[in-house]
Amino acid sequence: MPDLLLELRSEEIPARMQRKAAGDLKKLVTDALVDAGLTYEGAREYWTPRRLTLDLRGLTARSADLKEERKGPRTDAPEKAIEGFLRGAGLSSVDEAEVRNDPKKGDFLVAVINKPGREAQDIIAEAIPAIIANFPWPKSMRWGAKSAEAGSLKWVRPLQSILCTFGPETEEPEVIPFDAGGVASGNITYGHRFHAPDAIKVRRFDDYVSSLEKAKVVLDAERRKEIIKADAQNLAFASGLDLVEDEGLLEEVANLVEWPVAILGAFGEEFLDIPPEVIRLTIKENQKCFVLRQLNGDLSNRFLLVANIDATDGGKEIALGNAKVVNARLGDAKFFWETDLHQINSDDGFEPWLAKLHSVTFHAKLGSQAERVQRIMALAEELAPVVSANPAEARRAAEICKADLNSAMVYEFPELQGLMGRKYAERANEADSVALACEEHWKPQGPSDDVPSDPVCVAVALADKLDTLVGFWAIDEKPTGSKDPYALRRAALGVIRLVLENELEIEVAKLIVAAFKNVIQGAWDKDILWGVKDGDVCEIPRYTIQDDGGQPAQIESAFPNLDAEVCYGVQKINFSKFDLMLNTNLTTGELPSLPTLRSLSDFGNDLLSFFHDRLKVHLRDSGARHDLIDAVITPDSDDLLMITRRVEALGSFLDTEDGKNLLAGTKRAANILAAEEKKNTEVGDTVVESLLEDARETALFKAVNQAEKQAAEAIEKEDYSSSMAALAKLRAPVDSFFEDVMVNVEDTKVRANRLALMRRIRDATGTVADFSKIAG
Amino acid sequence: MASQVGNLIFQNRSAKFSMAHDPKNSFQGLILTLHEYWAEYGCVILQPYDMEVGAGTFHPATTLRALGPKPWNAAYVQPSRRPTDGRYGENPNRLQHYYQYQVLLKPSPPNLQELYLGSLEAIGIDTKLHDVRFVEDDWESPTLGAWGLGWEVWCDGMEVSQFTYFQQICGQECSPVAGELTYGLERLAMYVQGVDDVYDLNFNGGEGDKKVPYGEVFQQTEREYSRYNFDIAGTDELFQHFKDAETECQRILAAPAHDPKKGREIIMAHPAYDQCIKASHVFNLLDARGVISVTERQNYIGKVRDLSKACGEAFLQTEAGGVEAA
Fold first, then answer.
1. Residue B202 — φ and ψ, nearest 5°?
2. How far is A464 from A404, CA to CA, in rounded Å?
3. What interface predicted TM-score (ipTM) does this complex get?
4. What's the pTM?
């Protein structure tokens, strides 16, 4: 079976795009060949900064012949119909069609179309140019003289050559000839840009890889990474140092070189005063170099770079040149660090940075960073007692947690936001928790990031995330599909993980209301309210709307020029759970058709269900059954910890024999009930004891009463396993009831009573979970 | 092949190479070497544009000539002004006035990377000794309504050039695409001469008393312009200049194409574009004075972009822009 080797060689492809592009190439080519009726045994993609390569093995040499029959009209059909049929089937005359007979239809025409299989070469030659022309690069460009032609080829950077050979292992492979945007395919590639720029003739993958290796190109990115890692560790070891590993950086540098050569360099020792994180980031971001630690854990003044050549002097010049740049960069960083420290230690301390937050816009509709900080302060202080934090510390931490945004260091290195905040707070002698919160309130940033546990950090982290969520929800900037520009999913997951991992018994709905109150209050203080105009959220000046609501006449005079629909109005702020309505329409009759601003009730429930969705994802990711989560969550459950514990308890209960049988019994009861409810059969309102005829029936009734009571008591105490145990006692009576007692008896009264008993079973188990949503 | 081109030119010249011309000793030698290299390739060697600009790209030989179908190869030095980068002559790496060496080749030749590497060899960078790399860096100029894809070129970790395939200039698609090379001359010279402070560069290649350091030429002016840019430049006047340039640009472009005096069409794309350059530089000065707020900033950038777009459109109506002579 023949193999296919494809190489698309171009000018340097951005490091971050190579891996995905090679994967896309594999998928597109294999999909196209399979669609065309070929099969293959295996395919693997490779990439370097200058090439994407596909090694495809065991391809079928031809696609199979296909025979297709197409039924046509009767032989005596009008001429037009027959002509149309022939044309559609690609036949030139009626003689080419077969005549068949059908007892119902009579004589009719059939076109037998033989689609002969095609040579793999032809399929490939057709498929690849189309793939190249429509390749999914994140950004692509035109180049050269051809770029003046309409529809000229676009590629990530100029495409320089295409290598495409095909053939079985036993024979000399042939070039599959095609042209993509003026680049003709061939059997030639080129080696390393500086070490071996000459043409290399290629037959198949094996000699391709070895020729490239001789021409100082390591084709496999994973191997380049291994080489870098091993060489780096050796160099570090020889100098008595430890390499500070960085997987992301390794991936990047491996894709910046075809021939990796690790070299050690040194920067000025005077820069070691700068925080090590800053040094590391400067060297990583700007120079794509690794840093090294001394064996005692302190940062050393060495760095490790990965060059693309075996320099004639062993890399001395390269090390010196890089050191020069690193020194210049660290010189800048040192200047920023010292400038910031000077500020922090002056009499004004954080003040100038805080003042500047007024001029930093957080979002046009949500005000400045300073306004946001005010909201977070209020919310963090309010949350403090719930998470056992000192309210004053929580407030102070919230106040200064965004100050570092205006430091020189963060201006230069935005990635250091938070870390620098902590360093500066420490230098300013803020309380330990306050300084820590400056860094940790950003956390957790993702599913695997650490979750803060210090109470002050937790309070500020929750306040920060809730303010973001509620704010963007209020202005209707919710995530849709894959778009989540404000990282609201991450914020919600952050809240969930903070609550669960710190075992906080918090009702999320209350948090939402508290955060919303702040958002509204901020708007209130600014004399701004939101309204909806032409379907868009807009701001409305508040000046005539009174705290106790406004009068229609006032509203009218306040908005004399409004020609659009306006919704507004804070009549009464009543922050009981989800009861705040912003929709008091003050203008009945006076102004036409004013729809209401979305009520907080809708708003809150919408955000709460967003939390439910994120919680489901989170629990599923940690191994919980999604049907159990559905069974436990109701639209208004808002105690995340309780939901989680119930899911856990339910899961272990259902693993027991009692659990499984009770589930079956409950489902049976629910099904019978549902079927009868559908038929509008009479169901008793309550179970009437005197109508219980059978001893088993009586036993079940007693058991239900007891189980329900005990389960409810256990739930009251949030003791979910006891509530399950209480329900488990139902299993035996339920089983024996179904064994011996008929529900659908003739006597309508008895039947109604038994159906009422079924409903009691459903309700009793329902106190713990909705069993109907559980699978099995 | 690249290195061959480079070496060839280098060898041709090396016979007459005096110390004063050696890029390793002389800032002007570096410029002359690049001139010779690109002249050899066939470029028109132009002189700097006689207006204040922020980068070599603003020279009409790049901005306007990158548009339209006609082939165009040019190279020139362009003094570039970045008022916010002023450091009173005290920072060894930052200048508010510096030189860019600019090469524009339209259409971009297939061996543009090799040609560029050849120029590095010509100025004495041995690519078997130094680590030269093409690192992703896409270019965008919001004021020029322009973008392109390319790289920053690293030599031993230092950015020595910008390498861009123009896709759009003045809001117009480039057809064909031009390749632009921009060398930061001071930085490159510091590297080639092996100095750490820009003011220590040997400007003329002289030895002993004959040596003129870069600082002697430019340190005083850096101080003067830093003070002027940050504190003295009259903001009211600058705002007025901006308006004037904007109005003048629009007025020029609004003039009928037909010149009654000469009895033929004369579209004044270049005079209009001068006003666009002026507006852009005045904006940079206002920015350095810190009198443009964040929201206003976008507004001003948008105004300059509108001018540049209009100039690009006008240029495409001219002969140099590809319209057949009447």
1. -80, 115
2. 15
3. 0.91
4. 0.73
